[in-house]
């Protein structure tokens, strides 16, 4: 039986995430079928969900318009895993400090959108991630930083002391883009390691 992974495809690095999930599944002996999510009614059939980067204002507006927002909340409430990256992390947060982003509130963090400003638009850094034996090559692009984490949130990685990867229950959020390197370990951590531990 294959797992069904839904990639929210209103915007962002959809095909890269699709490849990373399939490749991570292969490493863990699971076959994965990927579906792109653009409208309501698809999320309830998904085992795993992925929220890519892009522009969080646009993504949150489309999720609300299509009714996908409520479906994602139900998915999380049912304990099913989600990986949210960059703009995806902003959208899942409790607060994005920006009234243009209607956040889902499924990850108890407060984020600062575009925290790096123009000075440091994009860069790559090797970071230590809890649960991974070797450092992960993290690509940051107009990345958000996490300002505050709630009590139930585990910080998985930091960059210069600030949290950049977190987990709360079934939701993993990263401010960097794990789909842009040829290294599916973050997808493994978010999806398959958790399933194996059940
Ligand atoms: N800063 C962007 C936003 O606010 C996110 C950037 C990204 O996903 N690469 O949506």
Quick overview of this protein structure:
The protein is of the alpha/beta class and 198 residues long. It has 5 helices and 12 strands.
**Which strand-content bin applies to the residues?**
25-35%
Helix content: 25-40%
Number of helices: 5
Outline:
globular
> What is the CATH architecture term?
3-Layer(aba) Sandwich
Order of helices and strands: EHEEHHEHEEEEEEEEH
**CATH topology grouping:** Rossmann fold
Oligomeric nature of the chains: single chain
The termini sit apart by 17 Å
Number of strands: 12
- Within the largest sheet, what's the order of strands? 2-1-3-4-12-11-10
| Radius of gyration, CA atoms, in whole angstroms | 15 Å
Low-pLDDT stretches:
none
What's the arrangement of secondary structure elements?
Elements: E1 3-8, H1 14-27, E2 32-37, E3 48-51, H2 56-66, H3 68-77, E4 82-85, H4 87-92, E5 93-95, E6 107-112, E7 122-127, E8 136-141, E9 145-149, E10 154-159, E11 162-168, E12 171-174, H5 185-196
Parallel strand pairs: 1-2, 1-3, 3-4, 4-12, 5-6
Antiparallel strand pairs: 6-9, 7-8, 10-11, 11-12
The structure holds glutamine.
């Amino acid at each position: 039986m294959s797992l069904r992974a839904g990639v929210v495809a209103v915007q962002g690095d959809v095909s890269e995430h699709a490849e990373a999930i399939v490749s991570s599944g292969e490493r863990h002996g699971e076959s994965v079928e990927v579906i792109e999510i653009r409208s309501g009614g698809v999320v309830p059939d998904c085992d795993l969900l992925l929220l890519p980067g892009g522009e969080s204002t646009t993504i949150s507006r489309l999720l609300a318009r299509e009714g996908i927002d409520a479906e994602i909340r139900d998915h999380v409430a049912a304990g099913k895993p989600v990986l949210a990256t960059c703009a995806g992390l902003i959208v899942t947060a409790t607060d994005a400090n920006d009234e243009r982003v209607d956040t889902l509130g499924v990850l108890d963090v407060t984020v600062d959108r575009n925290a790096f400003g123009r000075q440091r638009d994009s860069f790559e850094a090797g970071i230590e991630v809890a649960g991974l034996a070797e450092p992960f090559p993290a690509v940051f692009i107009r990345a958000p930083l996490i300002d505050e984490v709630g009590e139930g949130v585990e910080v998985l990685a930091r960059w210069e002391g600030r949290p950049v990867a977190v987990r709360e229950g079934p939701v993993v959020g990263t401010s960097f883009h794990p789909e842009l390197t040829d290294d599916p370990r973050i997808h493994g951590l978010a999806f398959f390691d958790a399933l194996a531990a059940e």
